[in-house]
Known about the structure:
Blueprint: E1 2-6, H1 12-21, E2 25-29, H2 33-41, E3 45-46, H3 50-56, E4 59-62, H4 67-75, H5 80-83, E5 89-92, H6 98-110, E6 114-117, E7 120-121, H7 123-129, E8 132-137, H8 140-151, E9 154-161, H9 165-193, H10 198-205, H11 213-224, H12 233-250, H13 255-272, H14 281-288
Parallel strand pairs: 1-2, 1-4, 2-3, 4-5, 5-6, 8-9
Antiparallel strand pairs: 7-8
Helix pairs in contact: 1-7, 4-6, 9-10, 9-11, 9-12, 9-14, 12-13
Amino acid sequence: MKVGFIGLGIMGKPMAKNLVKAGHKLVVLDLNKESVDELIGMGAETAPSKVELASQCDVIITMLPNSPQVKEVVLGEGGVIEGAKPGTVVIDMSSIAPLASREIYAELEKKGIHLLDAPVSGGEPKAIEGTLAVMVGGNKEIFDKYYDLLMVMASSVVYVGESGAGNVAKLCNQVVVALNISAVSEALVLAKKAGVDPELVYQAIRGGLAGSTVMDAKAPMMMDRNFKPGFRIDLHIKDLNNVIDTSHGVGVPLPLTAQVMEIMQAIKVDGSGVEDHSSIVKYYEKLANIQVTRESK
Length: 297
């Protein structure tokens, strides 16, 4: 089985590396030549075009920024759809709007090409470790066939329903992550302003009901002032735009999500859109006129 991989960004590159390390024959494409060369150095191949890549591969994974890019790469002129043979499977691991997934699915099916929407959660660290959480929508038989391939990049791969369901699950994930980071930010700013070491508060509460994977991942980054992006504010804004559009479409008010969206917009306007979403803490720090830092070593 030959696997195509289009999109070697912060997430895509380590995911592709894990596939190569597991022994899969990979054909990669990206606008960043250095990333392509890095994968070639590990044993992957490349192709001169998306059409050529698609014609060589049994399954094609895409990991791209948003719905327009996925539509262009898969359905656009010179796209995957022009080179893929009937029976080819496209696994889109990007986080895009569920409606866009369903539109792409319908167009591919006309050509006998199948689509799984399989967005991921875990950020760059888990992409590197190969321990992502993957939520998948599409045909169940195709999911079963490619489950083992997905597990090379993940510690959890769950089928959640028909086309678009994977991206609905990812939007739900992004709501929980955004609100959790905001809650952690509020708590640590409160601790610092009240004169208590945020590190000790974190250690005290992380083992109880307040503890979470998000807290363990983001609280240390906040206290260390390490905002190197594992997942950028700009990308979380993109996801929350999709969340709010989808929620309005189905008639679900999301007041807390809307508030966090505005907090992220403020962070972006302040120049931190390219930073990790843990930089949400900066919004609360500005309100309280204090900075969350460790006092104990």
